[in-house]
Structures are given as structure tokens and as C-alpha cells.
Amino acid sequence: MLNALLSINWLAVLAASVLNFLLGGVWFMVLFKRQYAVALELDDAPDQKPGLLFIVGPFLCGLVTIATTAFLLRLLSISDLTDGLILGAIVGLGFIGATTVNIAINPKFPRPFFYSAINVPYFLIASLIASAVLVLMA
Description:
- By secondary structure, the protein is an all-alpha fold.
- It has one domain (12-42, 51-136).
- The chain has helices at residues 2-6, 10-31, 33-39, 52-75, 81-104, 112-136.
- It starts with a helix and ends with a helix.
């Protein structure tokens, strides 16, 4: 296991993390901005400039998730793009997507399934892109 951890290509992790962050910006601030606000019942709230936590937090969470995916790719000796994409789908849906739905069904989320319908596809696509980058830059 230590060999897998030590053989991670951190440049690939960083590149995939930047792409993940940019996709999130486009997804939540452009493509689904209104729907995301509706899902959180914030559609009547005035637009606010995002704080530092809103910017740094998702980047760091993505970085950790992508580093974990890189570790799994190494641990499983995945070097084929197709197998990498399969792992990306498993991580995106099986781990991140399921956890997103689980968090959203908390009573504090006003529209949990609408929220999930916006977020889960993002996490799936982001995970597929990250896995592709990690395999191609290996």
C-alpha cells in the first residue's frame, strides 16, 4: 500500500483538481446557478460575492477526493483509460453521489432530491474527468 501512495503523480492530482474546480465554477455559477439556488430555497436571496471558504473549501475537498482516486488507481494497478473511467464512475456515483444524497436528505435541505439531481451529475462528470487525467498523466 505504501508503494501505491508513494507513486502518486501529484502533478496529475493538481491538474485534475484545477479542472474539477473550474468545472464546479461553470456548473454551479453558470449552468445551474438558478436551479442550485432554487434547490436550497435561496432563489429570492440577493446575489453575494462568494467568501474565501466557498472558493478554497471545494478546491481542497476536490484535491483530497482526487488524491484518493489516484491512490486507488495505483493500488489497483489501473493504467487503462477504460478501467480508469470505470473506477471514476464507481467513485463518482458510489461514493460521492451516494454521500451527496445522504447529506441532502437531512431535514435542513428543503429540496433534497432536486439538490441531488443537480449535484450528483456534477460529481460523476468531475470524477470521470479526474480519473481520465490521472490515467493519462500516469
